[in-house]
Every structure is written in structure tokens, then in C-alpha cells.
């Protein structure tokens, strides 16, 4: 598919960026029918910046403390997203709660990769919570983002044995994202029947 016809993804991350790289690589190799056009991080200098540079993906780095409010820095981010023509926001280790500015602008177009089988172990340090609880099976969920904490509609989930989860978490996240894209297409097509201006994901 021509790059101009592919859906354009922005990935938000706060740290190492292993999920960013897995998704960006899959897009570059054609395993995910989309293009990563922007990386956003609230941690300037985080390793995800280095990973993004390897793929030629532009990065927006910002410090929330430099802004008067969440609405202010999200308005700034919204400008970059619109400039890049972003269709879908993927939160991949982004450690901030999305506020009303982005939720309203990208309603139904923000997804989160969460390292647990939701609704178990919501919020920060889900892996630590699961380890403390002594679970034998871990998991990954991909869900839509709304005003609740990790409470948006679940798109896809997979259970992963403990050892596999520790060794291959980013690979599973990439696989899950590949599975998610057709779901997003279906959701988009259903919404389009109601709102002609809504987006679709090509598959």
C-alpha cells in the first residue's frame, strides 16, 4: 500500500521504548498496515528518542513542569499531531493520564498497551502488582482510552506464561498490535456509518 494511504500513528512513550521499536519495525516491514509518523515523550532524553531516530521518526520532547497545566501541554501536542496528520495515538509506556484536550480531539482513536489482563492490575506498575500478588499467568491488554483509569473498552487481550512474559514482552505487544489493527478497522467502519467524518483503519 502506498504510504499516503496508510494510517498515520503517533506513539507516546515515557521510557525505554521497546514497544515503540517493535511497532515501528513491524510497520516498516509491512506487518502492520500503518506508518509511525511521530514519537511523543514527556521524558526528554529517554531511550525511546534514540530508537525513534533509528527509524527516522520525528520526536516531540517536553517537560510537563514547563507548562501551566495539562491542558496547555496537550494543546501543544495537539498542534504537532494535526501537523503530522495523525489518525491514531498509541500509548506504549506513556506514564501520564490523557486529559480532556486529547480525549476530545481523538475520541475513539487513542489506544493503550497495558501489561496485565484488565481489569486486573490497573494503573501504574501493573507488572509489580502482579508479581506481588503471585499470579502464575501474566498478560497484555490493548484497550481504548477514555476518562477512566485503564477502564476503556478492551479491544484484545492475551495471556502469557510468566517466563515468556519476562523474556518476550515487547514481541507480544507487537503481535497484539497487529491483531488490533483489524479490530480498529471494524470499529472505524461501524462508526463511519454513524458519523461520516469518522476515521477508518485500512487492513
Descriptive overview:
With 203 residues, the protein is α/β, with parallel strands linked by helices. Helices cover 39% and strands 21% of the residues. The protein contains 6 helices and 7 strands. The chain has helices at residues 18-28, 47-54, 70-83, 100-105, 126-133, 162-194, and strands spanning 7-13, 34-41, 59-61, 88-91, 110-114, 137-144, 154-161. It has a 7-stranded mixed β-sheet with strand order 3-2-1-4-5-6-7, with helices on both faces. α1 links the parallel β1 (7-13) and β2 (34-41). α1 (18-28) packs across α6 (162-194). It is globular and about 45 Å long. The protein starts with 6 loop residues before the first strand and ends in a 9-residue tail after the last helix. The relative contact order is 0.15. Residues 186-203 have low confidence and may be disordered.
Amino acid at each position: 500500500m502506498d504510504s499516503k494511504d496508510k494510517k498515520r500513528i503517533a506513539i507516546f512513550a515515557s521510557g525505554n521504548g521497546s514497544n515503540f521499536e517493535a511497532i515501528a519495525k513491524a510497520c516498516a516491514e509491512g506487518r502492520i498496515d500503518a506508518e509511525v509518523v511521530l514519537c511523543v515523550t514527556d521524558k526528554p532524553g529517554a531511550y525511546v528518542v534514540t530508537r525513534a531516530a533509528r527509524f527516522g521518526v520525528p520526536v516531540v520532547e517536553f517537560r510537563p513542569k514547563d507548562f501551566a497545566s495539562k491542558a496547555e501541554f496537550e494543546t501543544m501536542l495537539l498542534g504537532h499531531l494535526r501537523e503530522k496528520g495523525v489518525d491514531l495515538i498509541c500509548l506504549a509506556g506513556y506514564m501520564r493520564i490523557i486529559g480532556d484536550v486529547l480525549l476530545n480531539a481523538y475520541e475513539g482513536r487513542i489506544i493503550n498497551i497495558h501489561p496485565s489482563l484488565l481489569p486486573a492490575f490497573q494503573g501504574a506498575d501493573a507488572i509489580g502488582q502482579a508479581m506481588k500478588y503471585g499470579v502464575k499467568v501474566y498478560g497484555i491488554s490493548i484497550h481504548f482510552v477514555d476518562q477512566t483509569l485503564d477502564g476503556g473498552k478492551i479491544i484484545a487481550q492475551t495471556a502469557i506464561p510468566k517466563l515468556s512474559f519476562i523474556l518476550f514482552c515487547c514481541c507480544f505487544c507487537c503481535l497484539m498490535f497487529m491483531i488490533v489493527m483489524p479490530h480498529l478497522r471494524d470499529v472505524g467502519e461501524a462508526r463511519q456509518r454513524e458519523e461520516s467524518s469518522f476515521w477508518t483503519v485500512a487492513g
